[in-house]
Amino acid sequence: MAKPTVAIVGRPNVGKSTIFNRIVGERISIVEDIPGVTRDRIYSSAEWLTHDFNIIDTGGIDLGDEPFLEQIRQQAEIAIDEADVIIFLVNGREGVTAADEEVAKILYKTKKPVVLAVNKIDNPDMRADIFDFYALGFGDPFPISGAHGLGLGDLLDEAAKHFPKTDTEDYPEDIIKFSLIGRPNVGKSSLVNALLGEDRVIVSNIAGTTRDAIDSLYEYEGQEYVIIDTAGMRKKGKVYESTEKYSVLRALRAIERSDVVLVVLDGEEGIIEQDKKIAGYAHQAGRGVIIVVNKWDAVEKDEKTMKEFEQKIREHFQFLDYAPIVFLSAKTKKRVHTLLPAIQMASENHAMRVQTNILNDILMDAIAMNPTPTDKGRRLKIYYATQVAVKPPTFVVFVNDPELMHFSYERFLENRIRDSFGFEGTPIRIYSRERK
Ligand code: GDP
Ligand code: GDP
Fold first, then answer.
1. Which domain of life does the UniProt lineage start with (predicted)?
2. H helical segments located in 318-427
3. Residue 249 has what pLDDT?
4. Whose CA is nearest to atom 9 of ligand 1?
5. What is 5-162's CATH number?
6. 100, exposed or middle or buried, with CB in 10 Å at 0-12, 13-18, 19+?
7. What is the structure's pLDDT at 246?
8. Percent of the chain with pLDDT over 70
C-alpha cells in the first residue's frame, strides 16, 4: 500500500509553502538552484515521529490562467481527490475572509478528515485570535506558526490520527521500480507496451495498485522490475485526466515511488521547455535518471544526427549530465531491449555504497591537484568525507567552514568522485558540514 498523503489547502499567502517546507524539513534545503528547475517542491515525502507520509502543497499546483477563485477551488478539489487528510490553512492575523469561506465550501463536500490550522500565531498572546475560526465549522483550530515552527507537532499528531492503517513501501527492496515521465504524446504508453510485449514473463498485472498508477511486475533475466505506469491511466479514460492539472502531481508521485525514472523525449519534435521542467522533477527527487529519445524511427538522419541531438540534450539538461541517453523507437521496437540493462545499471549505481578509505584517498588526491578555494584570506579545509546514504548516494564532507565551499569546488569534487566510482545514471549529493 502507498503511504498516506496529506494535502495543504488555503488561499494564497496564508503560509502553505512555509508550512510545507517546515514539515518536509531538511530535504527542502538540498534543492539546488539550477536554472530550468523549479525551485519549490509541491510534493514530497516527510516523516513525523513514526509516521511516513507524503505531503502536497496544493498552492504550488500551476493551474494556468484560471481566475483567482477558480484556482483555489480547483486546488481544494485536488486535495480532496488526492489526500487522505487535508490541512486547511488560514491566516490568524486576518480573520476569516471570503476566500477562506470559498475553500471551506468545497471542503464541506468531502468525507475526508479536514484539520483546520491557524497560521501566523507567532506568540502565545495571539492564541485568542483563533476563536473566530470555529465559524468555519471544522472543529478545533490548531494554532501554529510556520515562521517559528510552533504548533506543528500537535497539528501533525492530529493529522496522523486520521491516517489509514497501511504499511509503508509496497515492494521488496530488490525489485527495481521505474516510471516513465514526459509530456503528453512523447510515447510513454507505447513504450510501456513495447517493454511489456517483449517476450517477458509478466508475473502479474496489478491494476489499480494505487490511485494514480498501474503497476506491472515482471521478470527479465532473473531481475524483477515494476513499471509504474501513470500514462496508461489516462488512456483508460479516467475523466479526471481530462485536464493536465493532475498530471504533474501524478508524475511526482510516480517519481517518488521509483528507483529509476525514464525521462521520455520526442525525437521527432525535439526538446521544449516543458521537457526541462519534467526532467527537473526527477533530478530533484534524487532518483536514477535515463533520458530516452523516442520516435527515432521518424527522424530523418545521417551519421551526425544522433551526436547533434545528444549535444542538444546536454545543453538543455545540464543538471542531468549523469544520465545516459538511449535513442529508440517504441513503434519499431528498435533498441527497446537496451533499456532494461540501462535501468539496471542506473539502479545499481543509485544504491551503491563506496568505501570510506577509498573515498578519502580520492578526495585528498583531488585537493592536491586543485587546491581548495579561499575567501577573504580564509582557506577551505577539508578534513574527511563519508557516505551517509544511498538512493541517491549522499556524501558529507567535514570542513572548517561550509560557507567556504563554493559551488564550483563542490562540482569539482563531485566530478572526481564520479570519475573514480562511476555513478552513471544517478545523481549524487554532497553536503559540507562543519567539523565540531
Ligand atoms: P502561501 O501562498 O500560502 O504558500 O504562503 P507563503 O508560505 O508563501 O507565506 C506567505 C507569507 O506569509 C510569507 O511572507 C511568509 O513569510 C509569511 N508567513 C508564513 N508563515 C508565517 C508565520 O507563521 N508567521 C508570520 N508572521 N508570517 C508567516
Ligand atoms: P504518451 O501520451 O506519452 O503515452 O504517448 P503515446 O504512447 O500515446 O504515443 C503518442 C503518439 O506517438 C501515438 O500516436 C503513437 O503511435 C506515437 N508513437 C509512440 N511511439 C512512437 C515511435 O517510436 N515512433 C513513432 N513514429 N510514433 C510513435
1. Bacteria
2. 339-350, 356-369, 407-421
3. 73
4. 15
5. 3.40.50.300
6. buried
7. 64
8. 86
With the most atoms of ligand 2 within 8 angstroms of its CB, the residue from 190, 193, 326, 328 to mutate is: 190
Under 8 Å between Cβ of 261 and 255: yes
What is the value of pTM for the model shown? 0.73
Count of other CB atoms within 10 angstroms of residue 200: 15
Buried b (16+ CB within 10 A) or exposed e, 300-335: eeeeeebeebeeebeebbebbebbbbbbbbbbebee
> How much is the CA Rg of the chain, to the nearest whole Å?
23
Position in ligand 1 atom list of the atom nearest CA 21: 7
Q: Name the one residue in this structure whose C-alpha cell is 521500480.
A: 177
Residue 411 CA to ligand 2 center (angstroms) comes to: 37
Q: Does domain 356-434 have CATH number 3.30.300.20?
A: yes
**Fold (topology level) of 176-349:** Rossmann fold (3.40.50)
What 8-state DSSP symbol labels residue 4? P
Pocket test for ligand 1, best of 18, 20, 41, 71 (most atoms within 8 A of CB): 18
Render pLDDT for 325-334 as a digit per residue (tens, 0 to 9): 999 999 999 9
Question: Domain segments of the chain: what residues?
Answer: 5-162, 176-349, 356-434
